[in-house]
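SAMPLE LOG
Freezer: B-3
Tube label: C17
Construct: single chain, 276 aa
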Amino acid sequence: MVHALNYISNDYQYAVADGKVISKLEYDEELEFGEAIVKYHRLYSGNWQPADSIAVGEMVNRLNKLILAKAGFAEVSKLATETKNKVIAASGLSITPVQYPNLPNGKLVYKTECARCHGYTGNGDGPDGKGLEPQPRNFHDNARMQGISPFAAFNTIRLGIEGTGMEAHPTLDDDQVWDVAFYILSLRYQQPTGDKLKQTVAAVKLADIALYSDNDLLAAHSQPDSVAAHHFLAAIRTQQPATDESAFINTSLKYLDGAMALYRDGKFDEASKLAA
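STRUCTURE (predicted):
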């Protein structure tokens, strides 16, 4: 439910504008997400407190009516976000990483699990992504990515998107999924320098960094101008506190083994990219 509500709250703007469908493909997805949250509510809300189940059910039905009526983005997004937050609270869902994600490890996992479709630099131009509809997400597309949080990315990586080329990744553990989610949010930025900036970033909770999109972070931590805002976000998304290097080494060895297997199969280009 949270996964579907995340998508509605962010991507509905690309489906409807001024009461009209501007992308049939996007709108059809929004309708599917609306149906999904109704189904998931029926499946899971029996484990919640009755009052929570009733409240979420009413919100879900209201949200579907808004989507069917082609209501404005602001209204739909607001209700989808409120419903998502209610579902998280009612279900007790764990929504933040246990430890700070490891960006180098995320890069390694990305190269073997994601790059074939999303491209080795994250531009949505991987060889297996050609011909897919919708096309794989370009992680350098600022207009789209600034509204996506690591938590939303975590859900997409973990669960996939039904009816698209975005497959689920059930074999990755939660730490690996968080690593990749944080990594793809870092791709639009270069790591800035400056002690004052580091102090500012240190004051932002990991939970907020995981749950907030770039837009949300700027709303919560206002910056004086666009340059300051960019440097603030760059620091947030690229910071890498001291982490357990053994996890990175173990993942590196795993993917080097994978590169050797590709090489033995004669897939030299793929082996070279994975080993790099």
